[in-house]
Amino acid sequence: MTLPQTVAFSRNSANVFFHILTQCNLKCRHCYINPQQHGQNTLPLSSIVGWLEAFSENSHTKNLIFLGGEPTLHPDLPAAIRHARRLGFGSITVDTNGYLFHDILDKIDPGEVDVFSFSLDGATRATNDRIRGDGSFDTCVAGIHKAVSKGFDTSLIFTISLANIKELEEMAPLLKKLGVGRFFIQIIGLRGRSASQESDKASEGILQIERQQWLDTVPRIARMIAESGITVSYPKVFLNPDEKFECAGLVADNYFIFPNGRVYRCPLCEDFPIHSLDFKENQLVSAAKLNESDFFQLNIPEGCVMNKLIQPQNLSYRKDGTPEYKIACCLLKEEVKPA
Ligand code: SF4
Ligand code: SF4
Questions:
Q1: Contact, 107 vs 6, CB < 8 A?
Q2: Phi then psi for 213, rounded to 5 degrees?
Q3: CB within 8 A of 86, min separation 6: which ones?
Q4: Is there a contact between 143 and 94 (Cβ–Cβ < 8 Å)?
Q5: 118 contacts 157 by C-beta, under 8 angstroms
Q6: pLDDT grade, residue 299 (50/70/90)?
Q7: d(CA 258, CA 12)
Q8: Any long-range contacts for 120-128 (C-beta under 8 Å, 24+ apart)?
Q9: Per-residue model confidence as pLDDT tens digits over 273-283
Q10: Pairing status of strand 283-286 against strand 5-7
Q11: Quick one: pLDDT at residue 192?
């Protein structure tokens, strides 16, 4: 039997999530990209290079993730990957919706990218395409096959919502068939498009999952998938009152970079102009106060302060007013490895 382990925040490494553009060919229902807050520009290669260089000190301890929008829409992605490789980043991942524009798999070698991470939100074409758009299931599956056949390591991200939780179990045989090495389960949040009124009017209604449904479903199916030989990660989300709460903004080193120059340390802050850092002329500088870093300091019995501010419906209180459980940092993960 494989058991989930909480992945402790690393004090010795950093994760650099680099959105090189916000443009995308899809319109997924849960997309967290918010062009008003993140910009609509495509970052020129000269800025990508300059901003990567701002992270070049001890680069071997930093994991770099290229994102968008859809990062393969950027014609200079291969050059950006090569520059990052030359700078010595510890790992390089490209997150893609599977459309793999500009023949990216023909322009780089498996030795240049550690992982291509694909996104599917259903085990069936019907469910995935209802969330991500017509044709996206077949295109993503074809993209994974192509990447695996060329020798790239691959992973798959599945964002769980009420619209697809019933298909999580069916992902096990699909992952095996596709030859994917790792499976990341995400939980739909209240950011970007899923926080909008457009989402409330959707045919399935609100897509957020209740605590009990999450606890009854995700850990069990993650174990089942791990037993089939695939490492699975998923957000911890809920902490018992006696479990230790830590805010990654205080104890870990994560950077969420957007093409308008904003740099956040917390994903839950990304819908608001409260980023803690800015890129100014290729230099990373502190942003005006107050900002997200002031929120990280607040010690509340409910755990994550940003959750309490933007998703208070996730909380539940006893008669005496104390919270029944804490909400973990959204970056805290459970991992289940194959036996
Ligand atoms: S979730 Fe990703 S693939 Fe979907 S619309 Fe947003 S950026 Fe594009
Ligand atoms: S999600 Fe909450 S706990 Fe995690 S970094 Fe943000 S504010 Fe801190």
A1: no
A2: -65, -40
A3: none
A4: no
A5: yes
A6: very high
A7: 24
A8: 120/156, 120/157, 120/158, 121/28, 121/30, 121/158, 121/159, 121/161, 121/163, 121/164, 122/164, 122/167, 123/167, 123/168, 123/170, 123/171, 123/174, 124/167, 124/170, 127/163, 127/164, 127/167, 128/164
A9: 999 999 999 99
A10: unpaired
A11: 53
CA of residue 25 to ligand 1 center, whole Å: 8
Task: Report the chain's mean pLDDT, rounded to a whole number.
Answer: 93
Query: Tell me: the pLDDT tens digits for 120-136?
Result: 999 999 999 999 999 99
- Token pair in block for residue 70: 């859809």
| Protein residues with CB under 6 Å of any ligand 1 atom | 24, 26-28, 31, 33, 68-70, 97
Task: Locate 117 and state its tokens.
Answer: 């991470």
Rounded to whole angstroms, how far apart are CA atoms 236 and 40? 32
Question: Could you give the CA distance from residue 225 to residue 214 in angstroms, rounded to a whole number?
Answer: 16
pLDDT-derived band of residue 201, with 50, 70 and 90 as boundaries? Answer: very low
Tokens found for residue 145: 């096959």
Q: Which ligand neighbours the alpha carbon of 245 most closely?
A: 2
Contact call for residues 238 and 219 (beta carbons, < 8 A): no
Instruction: Write the single-letter amino acid at 192.
Output: G
Of 26, 66, 136, which is best to mutate to test ligand 1, by the most ligand atoms within 8 angstroms of its C-beta? 26
pTM: 0.95
The helix/strand/coil state of 58 is coil
